[in-house]
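re: ur question from yesterday

yeah so i grabbed the chain u mentioned. its 124 aa long if i counted rite. heres the sequnce exactly as i have it in my notes:
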Amino acid sequence: QVQLVESGGGSVQTGGSLRLSCTGSGDTLRDICMAWFRQAPGKERERVAGILTDGTTVYADSVKGRFTISQDNAKNTGYLQMNSLKPEDTAMYYCAVAKSVYGCPRRQSFYEYWGQGTQVTVSS
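ran it thru and got these structure tokens back, copy pasting raw so excuse formatting
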């Protein structure tokens, strides 16, 4: 089993920055995709960004150029640096892990492990 714990959420004004962290513990996983999803009230959960073990990254169009996903394999931790935040970025953010044979898919069902979520609120 794997446990994922997110941290770093909070409230910022438009244009501000936050860095989310996702730390994994439990079984050692290799060849994975670590992704960040978000879900705003009344909306479906969407994949924001993903990173494979080899460093390959993928982003949603809505966050390209503003968000950066990274990982520190030695610390079993992934990060999501969020800059130039907008009110529409307000959501609960979740990290999730999938086997990399699937790439970093958009569909939630490919992801086996999920964190509990961390709230990001951007005010105008």
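noticed a couple things. The CA atoms of residues 66 and 103 lie 22 Å apart. also DSSP finds no helices and eleven strands in the chain.
anyway ttyl
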